[in-house]
Amino acid sequence: MKLLTKNTDYAIRALIELTVHKEEYLSARSIANKQKMPFQFLRSIMQELIKYKIVSSKEGVKGGLKLIADPAKIKIVDIIRIFQGEIELSDCMFQQKICENRKTCVLRKEIKRIEKLVENEFGKLTVKGLVKKISKQEKGGK
Amino acid sequence: MKLLTKNTDYAIRALIELTVHKEEYLSARSIANKQKMPFQFLRSIMQELIKYKIVSSKEGVKGGLKLIADPAKIKIVDIIRIFQGEIELSDCMFQQKICENRKTCVLRKEIKRIEKLVENEFGKLTVKGLVKKISKQEKGGK
DNA sequence: ATAAACTGATGCTATATTAGTATCAGTTTG
DNA sequence: CAAACTGATACTAATATAGCATCAGTTTAT
To answer: Which of A70, A120, B47, B53 is the most exposed place for a label (fewest CB within 10 A)?
Structure first.
C-alpha cells in the first residue's frame, strides 16, 4: 500500500523547494537537479500546479516557477487530491441497487472511517508545516 | 487512493461468509455466487488463505472451504498484508546514502506516522468484529 | 463404474495505473 | 540570435491489478 504516488511526492518536494526560495523563480531543471527528480516528469507536474494556481510561471531565460499560494494554506491533502483523486473506494456501490449483500457493507463503513482518518491527517499537514519541521531538524540534531 | 484491493476485499467477504457458516464446507462456487465475485479469482484467493492456514479445504463433491482460524483473531490488517504486502512506502531511502536531500525526509516521517495509524486501525478490526456488526445492523435498522 | 461437483496447481490474458520521455512551438534575456 | 526557459501535447514503458482457462486428481451419489 502506497499512500503517495511519485507525482504527489515530487510535487510536495518541489513545493518545499519553492517555499524555501520564495519570491524567486526557480527553473524546473534546477529543482529537478536538486531534488533528483526526472526533469520532464517534474515539468508535467508543475504544469498541473500552475493550473491550480498554486505556482505561477515565467517563460524565457531567467524564467521558471514561483510559489503564489500561501504555503501555510497548501495542505498535503490538496496535493494528493490533485494527483491521486479523492481518498475513497473507487467502485463501492453500497446503499444502491447493485450491491445486494448489504451485510458486508459494514466493511465499507469501516474503510470509509479509516479513509476519513487518513484524509484528516493529511489535511493537518501543510507545506509550510513541513518546511518548519525541516528547519527545526537542521538546527537541532547533528 | 484505494486502501483495499479486490483480492483483499473478496477475501474478507469470503471469510465473513465462512464465519457465518462455521463448521460447514462451502464451495468456492457458492461463495462466489452469493457474494457476486468472479469464481476463478475467488478460487485463487482462497488458495492463498489455505496456505496461511486461515481456511482448510476438502476436495470432491460436498467438499469446499472451511474456516480453521479463530475469526476473532483474524485481523483485517493480516489479510491486507497477505494480498497487498506491508503498509509502507515502496522506495523510501531515507536515512541511507541514496537520499541526500535529507531535508525532505520530514515528509517521509509524516507519511510513516500516518501509515502506522492506518495499520493500527486495520489491526483493531477482525473478521469476527465485522460479523458482529453485521448482525447488530440486521437486528437494528429496518 | 462413472458422472458431477469439487479442489490443486499453474500459467495465461486483459486492463488500468503509474512513471517517465520526447518534441515542437513560443518567450525572454544577454 | 543563441541559450535557457515554459506551453502544449502526445507518446512509451513498466508495473500492478483483476480475472480467466485448463488439466489433473478427489470425493460422493447413483
So the answer is: B53
**Å between A31 CA and nearest CA of chain B:** 12
Q: Which domains does chain B have, with CATH numbers?
A: 6-139 (1.10.10.10)
Q: Which positions in strand C are less than 7 Å from the protein's CB atoms?
A: 3-11, 17-23, 26-30
CB atoms under 10 Å from CB of B63, counted, come to 13
pTM: 0.89
Give the number of other Cβ atoms within 10 Å of residue A75's Cβ: 16
Q: How many CB pairs under 8 A join A and B?
A: 104
Neighbours of A34 (CB within 10 A): 14
Q: Is the pLDDT of residue B67 over 90?
A: yes
Cβ of A16: how many Cβ atoms within 10 Å?
Answer: 22
Residue of B nearest to A108 (CA): B9
Residue B97: pLDDT over 80: no
pLDDT in tens, A42-91: 999 999 999 999 999 999 999 999 999 999 999 999 999 999 988 765 45
Strands (E), chain B: 55-58, 64-67
Query: Per-residue pLDDT averaged across B90-106, rounded?
Result: 52
Query: B58 by DSSP, 3-state: which?
Result: strand
